């Protein structure tokens, strides 16, 4: 698949291109808006990563032109970080919006999600890569143990349903585990400390759940 990077920062282009090429993408680069559109017209681009503040033609104009003429996905990558900036970008055609500085692995997940290549999970401000068992909160990596990750995924897959301690114990630790149910409470407490208290809810006397409204 062909990816266009349009950014006037050589450092940003170098980093993003390296990650994309590592994952097998063909990469085209432009340092200004006019050059970006020239490449867009000449090549079969599947996704464009566009900086907002570029010379000659800014990212908003580039995005509007691309979206007016094609179904190509556009990801805005910019230092402009207010809610109003994000709103303006998305209402002018951008499919996603990431602010600088950014985590390259998070950017790659967003790209793959736009292209339909990854099953990225979003829970409030968490982003989860289930294949590689990685979790980010607002672009910061969250270090979960294997059991904490498995608890989070089991609750997510059964969101809207209250799971008892026994169900979680069997689902995560297995039928052969002979420990006590309070093991679940301990791991849930540690999980909440890492991901935040608003994601996993306690139903007193019953168990735990992640609500459907994410």
TrEMBL record:
Q: Which residues form the signal peptide?
A: none
What residues does the Response regulatory domain cover? 2-115
Q: Name one GO cellular component term.
A: protein-DNA complex
Domain OmpR/PhoB-type, residue spans: 118-212
**A GO term for molecular function:** transcription cis-regulatory region binding
Q: What is this protein called?
A: DNA-binding response regulator
- Cite the CDD domains for this sequence: REC_OmpR, trans_reg_C
Q: Which UniProt keywords apply?
A: DNA-binding, Phosphoprotein, Transcription, Transcription regulation, Two-component regulatory system
What is the native source organism of this protein? Answer: Carnobacterium divergens
PANTHER family tied to this protein: ALKALINE PHOSPHATASE SYNTHESIS TRANSCRIPTIONAL REGULATORY PROTEIN PHOP, REGULATOR OF RPOS
Binding region for DNA:
118-212
Q: Give the modified residues of type 4-aspartylphosphate.
A: 51
A GO biological process held by the record = regulation of DNA-templated transcription
């Amino acid at each position: 698949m062909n990816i266009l990077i349009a950014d006037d920062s050589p450092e940003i282009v170098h980093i993003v291109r390296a990650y994309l090429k590592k994952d097998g993408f063909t990469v085209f680069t432009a340092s200004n808006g006019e050059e970006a559109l020239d490449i867009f017209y000449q090549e079969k681009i599947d996704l464009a990563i566009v900086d907002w503040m570029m010379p000659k033609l800014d990212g908003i104009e580039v995005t509007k032109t691309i979206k007016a003429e094609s179904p190509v996905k556009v990801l805005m990558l910019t230092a402009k970080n207010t809610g109003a900036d994000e709103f303006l970008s998305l209402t002018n055609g951008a499919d996603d919006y990431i602010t600088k500085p950014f985590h390259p692995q998070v950017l790659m997940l967003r790209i793959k999600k736009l292209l339909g290549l990854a099953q990225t999970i979003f829970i409030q401000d968490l982003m989860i890569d289930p294949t590689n068992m990685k979790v980010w909160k607002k672009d910061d990596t969250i270090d979960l143990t294997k059991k904490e990750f498995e608890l989070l995924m089991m609750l997510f897959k059964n969101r809207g349903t209250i799971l008892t301690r026994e169900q979680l114990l069997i689902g995560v630790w297995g039928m052969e585990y002979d420990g006590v149910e309070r093991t679940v409470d301990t791991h849930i407490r540690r999980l909440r400390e890492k991901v935040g208290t608003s994601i996993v809810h306690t139903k007193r006397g019953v168990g735990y759940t992640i609500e459907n409204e994410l």
